[in-house]
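Much of our argument rests on the idea that a fold can be written as discrete symbols. In the encoding step, the backbone of a single protein was reduced to a row of integers, each denoting a local shape. We regard such an encoding as a compact summary of how the chain folds. The record that follows shows the chain in one-letter code together with its fold in token form:
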Amino acid sequence: MGIDAGGTQTRWALARADGAIVAQGAVEGLSALQMSSDTGRAALQTTFAKLCQEVLAVGQPTQVLAGLTGFGGDGAVLTALLAELLALDVANVSLGNDIDIAYRDSFEAGDGYLVYAGTGSIAAWIDQDGGFHRAGGRGVLLDDGGGGYWIAREALRQIWRGEDECPGSWQGSPMAEAVFAQLGGSDWSVSRDFMYGQERGTIGRLALAVAAAADTDPLALDILQRAGQELARLALALIDRYGPRPVVLAGRAAQLHPAIFAAMQAALPASLALQQKVAQPHMAAARIAAKTVPIR
């Protein structure tokens, strides 16, 4: 069984010993960072309980590999929780960072750089000795440029700056109309409660409204193009440190609009091999688990 837990969605998959995927599903997003508060721990446990209930309705896994956003290495409590929910020994449950698994879904160790844009953003390289090297991935409060949260925040920033300068101007902006429609209102109180009261994955989904307006609103298009440039910056950071290698762009935010990939490509050297991929890290984790080889 493989699990890919992100801020927007938590996906799972079951694989046979030969690697064939036999079932998959999804529940709400979660983060290992939720373990820092009582409320967060309760929400995480509820989400894992729902996921495991879905899985057990299909079959009984024998080995589990879970990749969690925000995972810092101390997973004893989460390992025990998953083992209990799935009626497994803790030795049969392995936890790792979600980007470790996403990388292995795209490259063999040492072969290239992964730039992943989901709710947040990060670039990663796993060298031939298994060492993990990163650029970005510092969290939405510090950076995560080009991720879904960043796109949503940039959109609301621009909308409300426009309102400061010319109240009511949002009505002439397709992006503002799409954003406010998703939020459920144009009052500042609605935006305020959303940005300061919702989980980061929920905020990241507002990027969908920005992408929907990009073909008719130059401001929305500019935000997506700048997102692509931010993702290129992550790739260039690893290239400057470790040399040129192929780059794969993956993650749900990267798929929002073609302008993101186009802007990233334009910001990278023309000689660099850049590919966009629809990542399936939950399936990759299930296949790794099927081989009973814990992720490093």
Observations:
- The chain has a mean pLDDT of 92.
